[in-house]
Amino acid sequence: SDLYISIKVRAQPMKTSKKYDVYTDFVLPANTEFKVDLPNGNYSVQVIANSIYASKVQVSIEGGNNVTVSNAAGSYTIYTEESVEITDGQLNLAFPSGTWRLGGIIITKND
Length: 111
Hints:
single chain; mainly beta; globular; 3-stranded antiparallel sheet; disordered N terminus
């Protein structure tokens, strides 16, 4: 099954009150794989769990062991995988079945 993500692009700098929008919305990615085409290299990958309720998200990054990220009600938690090596031109994030709440994925190329 495919996972669709909505991306907001802002033409102007964010106001302070809007700065943390990425931490308030979530998707339910159960039993899906999110694929990102990237140049080969080393990346930092952040997975954000968030919800008005206490919740969690489980993910396997690039075929690794499942990681569970939990958050308290009305808050968010960021899990960071500091070093993810891409050798096939694609980052793969697999989400097993469950009632996960994924707030966001932030991918940063390591220098």
